[in-house]
Predict the structure.
Amino acid sequence: MAGTAHDEPGSAQHIVRLVSSGAASSRADLVRELGLAPSTVSLRVQELVAAGVLTESGEGASRGGRRPRLLRVRAQGGIALAADLGSHHARLGAVDLDGSVRDTADLPHDITAGPESAVDWLCERVTELVARERAAGRTVRALGVAFPGPVRPGEGRVLSPSRMPGWHRYPLREVLADRLGLPVTVENDATMMAVGEHAVARPELDHMVVVKAGRGIGSGVIASGRPHDGANGAAGDISHVRVEEAGDRPCSCGNIGCLETVASGAALIRELARQGVEVATTGELLRLVADGDPLATTLVRTAGRHIGAVLSVVVNFFNPQAVALGGVLATAEPLVAAVRGVLYERCLPVVTADLEITTTVTGPDAGLLGAGLTTLRRHLRTGPVTQDPTTGREPAAPTGREPSAPTSREPSTPQ
């Protein structure tokens, strides 16, 4: 998968990305794209065909020699389960190699109650989903988790998340893998949203910023076609940038005057309550906006200006090709219009000349797609396979522990 540390040039992940994006449709295309020997490419393609990840059939257009056979990502080449976690809800589903999503469900859950209860709850939901997918004859290869806080790259360990006591340094990937017997990938939620949007809707772009505006605020960064995590997984965390209008409002991070205190869904709900309007969720807030409530509309528009002010620095510094707004608040047109207006007002003309400012195409599935595709392509060879599609028999166990069916073991104690 583009952007993961495991997507090395010429790797199985890289080959699948080239085929699934349309950049390569034959072995000859892969030779040209990768710069590898034809024999090396043929060996790696054959391994992916034998594993049921790719298919090779039909004939493509000749370029002077023998007509090439066409490569495609196999529709039943295996799926990943994915969980996009929020502070008070989760969206779960199954993701195919071709970027399609099925069996999605939005469920309430308070992740701020602590890691132990969250892991128990998530393992129960994933176990149920594994059973349904396997009953339908699908191969479950891995689990991808989009987590609402910084995650140390390559480790799946949570680092200093705001509003979430007990989670600091929690080895979420390790615990989930042990409990479920599946390969697991854990990454930041906004980064996974950016990966999903980029991979499925905008693969031609090299540089983009995707903002997740909901109960909290975050952003994911795609640089040179890859997600940029930063040294400790905190890249793109615009939520805790200080804004003048926030004054000395205390923030959950321990600082004062952060963007989150004036522009997040939670902040807008608090401000409505202060002015005598009680709403319980961001969805209820947006219904007020849709009904033309002047107070709610003004607050959302002002939040958009605050977000735009912070993004203007990011856009001037990074010079992306696109800024895509996602998350529940991005469904409010006043907020989107305000962000767009501030960016055009404050950014350099050379930066905004070709800049696309829009909402996400993948919508609520962006995080699922990012988490699912990342873990699926990362574990192409290590994910559990129910049978070899070329022989119909169980494959030999790979090196290391063979992933088993989900179990009910207690999570290991974090170090």
